[in-house]
Write a structure and sequence with these properties.
The complex is a heterodimer of chains A (167) and B (594). The radius of gyration of chain A is 18 Å and the shape is elongated. The relative contact order of chain A is 0.12. Chain A has a 4-stranded mixed sheet, with helices on one face. Chain A is built from 8 helices and 4 strands; from the N terminus they run H-H-H-H-H-E-H-H-E-E-E-H. In chain A, helix 3 runs antiparallel to helix 4 and helix 7 packs across helix 8. Chain A is α+β, with helices and mostly antiparallel strands. Chain A folds into 2 domains: 56 residues, no CATH class; 82 residues, Glutaredoxin, CATH 3.40.30.10. In chain B, helix 10 runs parallel beside helix 12 and helix 19 packs antiparallel against helix 20. Chain B has 594 residues and is of the alpha/beta class. In chain B, the strands form 5 sheets. A 5-stranded mixed sheet of chain B has the order 2-1-3-4-5. Helix content of chain B is 40%, strand content 14%. In chain B, strand 10 and strand 11 form a beta hairpin. Classes of the chains: A alpha+beta (167), B alpha/beta (594). The interface between A and B is large, with 45 and 59 residues. The structure holds flavin mononucleotide (FMN) and FE2/S2 (inorganic) cluster. The site of FE2/S2 (inorganic) cluster has 12 residues of chain A, from helix 6.
Chain lengths: 167, 594
């Protein structure tokens, strides 16, 4: 694992929540992906112990669970910050300058794309089309969408979120 | 009815409306109504299509046709409530459109023909009553009570409907394959994975008119003899998923989904499966693997899904838009649908119009309309008066059609001839500031990352093509690179098992075909004619425009700009990272890209 992850330890994982997810969603064909989705909802990511426990509960090998978890972009094996910033790199946003938007976020947050800030407030990610192409370039912070971004507006968005957090 | 006496206010709450602040508009409408003691029925609606004018609000006063007001942000709400809702006047300068009125956006609709989008933005997607009031579920009733499954399939065949997910396979024929299979268990799958990274047709339909899609699935289920339906929807569409859930629950309560539907022998259940973020899962066999809980990797066909699909049972899979057409066809007859369009492409097609066009949004045109009509007449031409260069259609599987071919009619065969495809409906308009080599690189980057890795040609070949395109856009292109790209493209097309690899080279091939000179300028002269590739451009300050305001110098993250206050500034190109922040910040247009 990269050093960034080692600095911050997620602490012990409370497996009771996983048991509730398993009780509700395990069983029947094709339940692995929904179980992983709900487990990730519960923990924010998929800790190793959770993956192992899911494998045991569904009667498959941890390798198979790991294989599925790494195939799909939705699943994370590392914890994320409080606010996930998703910069759209869909076609419309690309031609409208998405690359510069990612760079601007990266500059404001002082972390590269894909990483989490040391204060664990923000994680910066790139995604494909979020479906608001007419507002390109677009980024989502948590559930909020921000359109028609440019370098200066990115700075403002980050500042506003920092203010909300009192940071 | 209460509708007749109460004013009705609809707020467009599709994803783009919400992004533009429609939630806040809705909240201030609620507050404002209460504060003024006004009575009105306030409700959400889906996407009205005019994404470029969001937030949109429609006001229907008793006994009068509705009027759609545009750019109705929260600060405009008080005036709307006072003048329109309370006093019954009209605010002409805000009118986007209205029956019998001249609205600012009439020309956006003039050439459209809305079948799939018939209800989008016209009703509250979270209330089945409104869908029923528009004649919803009557097509299902008609099919179950008066038509045999074979007659339903005949009607769909007669309509000439072809699959809207990209490949354009005739829908009626596909249904007849699954219908011919003898099996107690069969499945219907609705493909709502919408993977093209620049397309949002299916999202809008699901968010705005979920019952139409469900009704189409039910009719298909009856036609092929299926008892279960799956909707495979990408997880990135939370609003669509939420509204589908509500719609399924309401349809179950209304007796349209479940056991013995409408008192007949037909039973059908629908569940939603959320995708987990993999483009290849839009491919039908990969999608089924994903529903089964495995890695979404395509497999060889045959056996086709109609013979051996989900859980190895006969399965019929169609796209969202394909299903949304079905109720209309049964209601109005296959012949009415076939009357629209061209000889081989019938009906209408929905496009997500975006990019450098003035009016981006959701449009639906009869097949046979030209690209020019969509871009110029509906889309209102190119933004900022720039030159129309090309449209990209079909996303990563499609290609770029140059402006010279803008009179190409939109039908499957004509588009294929250009080297592009109809695709699922992404239509991205490009102007002279877009570099075509970069567009090709963008799509290759996408397909290379999304390749599932099963076929070597797709996995390694796309990577090699991407590397070549990267070096060209970085100014390190070599003589012979174009030929190398073409050779790789041919091999990948031949050596790949599924559509992802088979079509991945299309964006490269079409840009080479129509914009070869642009590739050559990059390779031979290390020049990007569109002034877009960062390694090949420079930012400079225009002496006659610079006021010495120092805004750019302060904004520059790498301190590459220097200059006295009120004096001419200059950019140290050795330090400059070409981030463009100075260009964005300058209010005097004093920064030039060369
Ligand atoms: C890589 C790849 C991605 C695809 N993505 C989608 C998609 O997102 N939505 C869709 O409806 N069809 C998609 N398809 C096409 C499906 O495989 C299938 O042909 C389609 O769902 C059939 O429905 P139709 O006949 O109604 O078009 C994709 C195909 C490939 C090869
Ligand atoms: S491309 Fe960014 S929202 Fe569609």
């Amino acid at each position: 694992m990269e050093p960034a992850c080692q600095e911050w330890s997620p602490g012990p994982v409370d497996l009771d929540r996983l048991d509730r997810v398993l009780a509700e969603h395990a069983g029947g064909g094709g339940s692995l992906i929904p179980v992983l989705q709900h487990a990730q909802d519960a923990y924010g990511y998929l800790p190793r112990v959770v993956i192992e426990r899911i494998a045991r509960a569904l009667g498959v090998s941890p390798a198979q669970v790991f294989g599925v978890a790494t195939f799909y972009a939705q699943f994370r094996l590392k914890p994320v910050g409080k606010h996930v910033i998703r910069v759209c790199h869909g076609t419309a946003c690309h031609v409208a300058g998405a690359e510069k938007i990612s760079e601007a976020f990266s500059r404001e947050l002082c972390v590269p794309d894909g990483e989490t800030t040391p204060d664990r407030l923000f994680t910066l990610e790139s995604v494909a089309c979020v479906g608001c192409c007419s507002l390109a370039p677009v980024a989502m912070v948590g559930g909020e969408t921000f359109g028609r971004l440019d370098g200066p507006r990115v700075g403002k968005v980050v500042k506003d979120f920092r203010k909300r957090e009192g940071a | 009815m209460s509708e007749a006496v109460k004013t009705k206010i609809l707020v467009g709450l599709g994803a783009c409306g919400i992004a533009a602040g429609a939630q806040k508009t809705l909240a201030s409408l609620e507050e404002g109504l209460a504060a003024r003691g006004l009575v009105a029925e306030l409700g959400p609606a889906g996407c009205m299509g005019m994404c470029y004018r969001e937030p949109l609000v429609e006001v229907r006063r008793p006994g009068q046709p509705g009027v759609v007001y545009m750019e109705l942000t929260a600060d405009r709400v008080p005036r709307l409530l006072d003048e329109v809702v309370r006093d019954g006047r009209r605010i002409d300068e805000w009118v986007a459109r209205g029956e019998g009125l001249t609205g600012a956006e009439d020309s956006f609709f003039a050439k459209q023909h809305r079948i799939v989008l018939r209800n989008c933005g016209r009703l509250d997607p979270e209330r089945i009553e409104e869908y029923l009031a528009q004649g919803g579920y009557q097509a299902l009733g008609k099919a179950l009570r008066t038509l045999t499954p074979a007659a339903v399939i005949e009607e769909i065949k007669l309509s000439g409907l072809r699959g809207r997910g990209g490949a354009g396979f005739p829908t009626g024929t596909k249904w007849s394959f699954a219908a011919a299979q003898k099996s107690a268990e069969k499945y219907i799958i609705c493909n709502a994975d919408e993977g093209d990274p620049g397309a949002f047709m299916d999202r809008s339909v699901l968010e705005s008119d979920p019952h139409a899609v469900l009704e189409g699935m039910l009719i298909a289920g009856y036609a092929i003899g299926a008892t279960h339906g799956y909707i495979y929807c990408r997880a990135e569409y939370p609003i669509a998923i939420k509204r589908l859930r509500i719609a399924i629950r309401q349809a179950e309560a209304g007796g349209f989904i479940g056991e013995r539907i409408l008192g007949t022998d037909f039973s059908f259940h629908v569940v939603i499966k959320e995708g987990a973020g993999a483009f290849v899962c839009g491919e039908e066999t990969a999608l089924m693997a994903s529903i089964e809980g495995r890695r979404g990797m395509p497999r060889l066909r045959p056996p086709f899904p109609a013979v051996e699909g989900l859980w190895r049972k006969p399965t019929n899979i169609n796209n969202v838009e394909t299903f949304a057409n079905v109720p209309w066809i049964l209601q109005n007859g296959g012949a009415a649908y076939a009357a629209l369009g061209t000889a081989k492409s019938k009906g209408t097609k929905v496009f997500a119009l975006a990019g450098k066009v003035n009016r981006g949004g959701l449009v639906e045109v009869p097949m046979g309309a030209t690209i020019r009509e969509v871009v110029m007449d509906i889309g209102g031409g190119i933004r900022n008066g720039r030159r129309f260069k090309a449209v990209q259609m079909g996303g990563p599987s499609g290609g770029c059609i140059p402006a010279e071919l803008a009179d190409t009619p939109i039908d499957y065969e004509s588009l294929n001839q250009t080297g592009a495809i109809m695709g699922s409906g992404g239509m991205l308009v490009l102007d002279d500031t877009t570099c075509m080599v970069d567009v090709a690189r963008f799509f290759l980057d996408f397909t290379q990352k999304e390749s599932c890795g099963k076929c070597t040609f797709c996995r390694v070949g796309t990577k090699r093509m991407l590397e070549i395109l990267e070096r060209i856009t970085h100014g390190h292109g070599r003589e012979g690179d174009i030929a190398l790209l073409e050779e790789l493209a041919a091999t990948i097309k031949r050596g790949s098992l599924c559509g992802l690899g088979q079509t991945a080279p299309n964006p490269v091939l079409t840009t080479i075909r129509y914009f070869r000179a642009e590739y050559e300028a990059h390779i031979r002269e290390h020049r990007c004619p569109a002034r877009s590739c960062r390694a090949l451009i420079a930012y400079t300050v225009l002496a006659d425009k610079c006021t010495g305001c120092q805004v750019c110098a302060r904004a520059c993250p790498v301190h590459a700009i220097s200059g006295e206050k009120k004096g001419l500034h200059s950019i140290d190109l050795a330090r400059c990272t070409r981030c463009g922040l100075c260009f964005d910040k300058c209010r005097f247009e004093a920064i030039e890209i060369t």
